[in-house]
């Protein structure tokens, strides 16, 4: 039913699949798949699609809404409330995941700094006449050189990111 409604409303608006795809920032094949029932748009895209076609999501989904019946409006508002709660939960999960990644990155940076402090660049006292030690020492020195210069910037950016994820919305 969704596929037929998308096609019917698109044609009634005088839009080609290509024109609708451009408005939605998708490829024409995506619109074709929707209209042939091979796939369906996700919830965000469904809302955008309804806006572009100047209709409601309910009409796209094949539900008829009569404004005279308050029971129907209550049912629709409950459905929208459930959808909004699901979207809010999805956003919170994304924010928590990003926050955990940033916290882990900060912990990793601190641990590497501790390890480098404990090592005290001991590789500089190695016998560099041995080619294997020379390669290993050069790699360690290069890593330490780059890490000590970039890690503080990454750490500060991560802390700012963590603070932003805790900000009330």
What does this structure look like?
Keywords: DNA-binding, Membrane, Transmembrane, Transmembrane helix. Pfam families: HTH_3. It comes from Dorea ammoniilytica. This protein folds into two domains: 60 residues, 434 Repressor (Amino-terminal Domain) (Orthogonal Bundle), CATH 1.10.260; 97 residues. It contains seven helices and no strands. The model has no long low-confidence stretch (mean pLDDT 87). By secondary structure, it is mainly α. The longest helix is centred in the middle third of the chain and has 50 residues. It is elongated. The two termini are 37 Å apart. Helix content is 76%, strand content 0%.
Short description:
This is Helix-turn-helix domain-containing protein. It is built from 7 helices and no strands.
Question: Which features does this protein show?
Answer:
Cro/C1-type_HTH; 0% strand; DNA-binding; transmembrane; 2 domains; Lambda_DNA-bd_dom_sf; mainly alpha; Helix-turn-helix domain-containing protein; 434 Repressor (Amino-terminal Domain); 169 residues; elongated
Could you give a short account of the major beta sheet? Answer: none
What is the number of helices? 7
The value of Rg in angstroms is: 28 Å
Q: State the end-to-end CA separation.
A: 37 Å
The number of E-state strands comes to 0
Describe the global form.
Answer: elongated
Q: Helix- and strand-based class?
A: mainly alpha
Query: What fraction strand?
Result: under 5%
The secondary-structure element order is HHHHHHH
> Helicity range of the residues?
over 70%
* pLDDT < 50 runs, ≥5 residues: none
Counting structural domains, the number is: 2
Mean pLDDT: 87
Assembly level:
single chain
Protein name: Helix-turn-helix domain-containing protein
Pfam families: HTH_3 (PF01381)
InterPro entries: Cro/C1-type_HTH, Lambda_DNA-bd_dom_sf
Transmembrane segments: 100-119, 139-166
């Amino acid at each position: 039913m969704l596929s037929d409604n998308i096609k019917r409303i698109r044609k009634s608006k005088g839009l080609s699949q290509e024109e609708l795809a451009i408005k939605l920032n998708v490829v024409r094949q995506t619109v074709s798949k929707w209209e042939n029932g091979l796939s369906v748009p996700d919830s965000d895209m469904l809302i955008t699609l309804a806006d572009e076609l100047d209709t409601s999501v309910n009409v796209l989904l094949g539900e008829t809404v009569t404004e005279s019946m308050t029971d129907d409006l209550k049912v629709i508002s409950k459905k929208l409330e459930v959808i909004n709660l699901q979207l809010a939960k999805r956003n919170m999960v994304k924010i928590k995941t990003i926050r955990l990644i940033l916290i882990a990155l900060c912990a990793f940076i601190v641990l590497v700094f501790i390890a480098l402090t404990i090592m005290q660049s001991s590789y500089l006292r190695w016998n560099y006449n041995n080619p294997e030690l020379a390669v290993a020492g050069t790699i360690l020195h290069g890593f330490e050189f780059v890490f000590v210069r970039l890690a503080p910037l990454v750490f500060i950016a991560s802390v700012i990111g963590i603070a932003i994820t805790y900000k009330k919305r």
